[in-house]
Structures are given as structure tokens and as C-alpha cells.
Amino acid sequence: MLGALGELPGRADQARRERQALPLVRFLVRLGDIYHDFFERYPAVPKGDEKPGAVHAARVTLASVVGIALGNGMKMIGETPRERI
To answer: Above 80 in pLDDT, residue 85?
Structure first.
């Protein structure tokens, strides 16, 4: 997921250079898919009677970062992001 997040500036620049939103749109869809798969495997909320730990806090932070990236990317293509994903 971190690797995909690192691609955002390059994809946004590519879309700007080519004057085509499609590279950025495809990236945002892929990032959303990666986010979904990651958090299905590694939930940010502890399961059962598991105590929340640093790993859970890090996952919540990562989810926030992905939300910001998706929101900013959507704004770049002229879409209004939802407050909650």
C-alpha cells in the first residue's frame, strides 16, 4: 500500500502533462482496491477480545492517509469526495 501511495504524485503529474484524467482515475481505482484488500486482511480494529495496540493505531493512521490521498485525487479530477469512505 505504501508503494501505491508513493505513485500518486507521478500519476497526478502524468495526468497533468497528458491533459487526461484517465491515468489518475485508474490509479485511484487501483488504490481503492489495494486499500480494501489490505484492510480486509489487516483490520484496524482489534478482533474479539484482542486489545488495541500500536499496530492498530498505525493501521488507522494508514487508513486516514489513504482517505486523504483518494480525496485529493478526486478533487484533482473535479470530483467531490465523500466525507466518509
So the answer is: no
Do residues 57 and 43 touch, judged by C-beta distance below 8 A?
A: no
Cα(31)–Cα(12) distance, integer angstroms: 13
Look up residue 30 and give its three cell numbers.
Answer: 487501483
Residue-wise DSSP of 14-71: HHHHHT-SHHHHHHHHHHHHHHHHHHHHS-SSPPTTPPP-HHHHHHHHHHHHHHHHHH
The pTM for the full model equals 0.83
Distances (CA, A) of 44 to 9, 26, 50, 58: 26, 26, 12, 8
C-alpha grid cell, residue 73: 485525487
